[in-house]
């Protein structure tokens, strides 16, 4: 069966992506005992990556006015991330200590409190949003996790949703206790990304490929599994596709998964498959959620989704060539990988 024809799109003004989740300071300890501090937090990293790739972004988070928080505000603001009102308050900024092994892989411990200030969540709910992304600690740690879930469910009528579990077992209970919440978040999302490590911890002894297939049939149009240097696989109701990772020299893997997530969202936004736009000239409304579902409704995955996956893979790879969670800009991507390919006629 030939692949489906291109989905006709027209340019629309892009509404901001709302990211809800933790912003914290990564304290990175090298194999030799050296230490450095870097801005981090999985959702904050995704917001930063999206802004650097040229998208308007709002971040609903919790950080202090202390030195760590001031560095975070400058770091995010310099790339164009807008904090929702109330995200900065008189609280200590959370930290994560990442201990790197000899090959640059990170193991984390945390000093974090997660609860969104009332003004931050209200500002998030009332502001214009085309797409909502969340995940990691923000969706798992009480009491803020319930706030995030409520925000997702209230936004779904007007916005598409992406979710990255990015599990931190040191902060969690047993896998069986965490699965119901994760599976519910999967079911209310349009795009889900999870790492091999996430799946192996959450479903011990199970075939993670079978789990990805189950997830893809529970609600989301796309489920993406990442395998580090072995690339990624995307699952949808009628098939799967493997995307190899480019060969690179790894400095460390901090923030690579978040760069992948921001690249994936960016590619899908630019293709009109996420967000709040519609196709001009067609009768009635054709929202991106419908177009994304159509793009993943055949045994062949649509070329726009494949391009988004390629962008995600390259963004993650480029992040691994530097230190810390430092996602690439559009200029970085163009310099390293060349101009973005044009859609096939």
Offer a few descriptive terms.
345 residues, alpha/beta, UDP-N-acetylmuramoyl-L-alanine:D-glutamate ligase, 4-stranded mixed sheet, 15 strands, 35% helix, disordered N terminus, disordered C terminus
Report on this model:
Helix content is 35%, strand content 20%. The protein has 345 residues and is α/β, with parallel strands linked by helices. The chain has one domain: UDP-N-acetylmuramoyl-L-alanine:D-glutamate ligase. The strands form 3 sheets. A 9-stranded mixed beta sheet has the order 6-4-1-10-11-12-13-14-15, sandwiched between helices. It has a 4-stranded mixed beta sheet with strand order 3-2-8-9. It has a two-stranded parallel ribbon with strand order 5-7. The protein starts with 16 loop residues before the first strand and ends in an 8-residue tail after the last helix.
What is the H/E string?
EEEHEEHEEEEHEHEHEHHEEEHHHH
Counted by DSSP, the helix tally is 11
Which geometry do the CA atoms define? globular
Regions with little confidence, pLDDT below 50 for 5+ residues = 1-12, 279-285, 341-345
Strand order of the largest sheet: 6-4-1-10-11-12-13-14-15
Q: Please identify the top-level CATH class.
A: Alpha Beta
Number of strands: 15
Mean pLDDT across every amino acid position: 86
What structural class results from the helix and strand content?
alpha/beta
Largest sheet: 9 strands, mixed
CATH architecture: 3-Layer(aba) Sandwich
Total number of domains: 1
CATH superfamily: Ribokinase
- Kindly state the percentage of residues in helix: 25-40%
Head-to-tail CA distance between termini: 19 Å
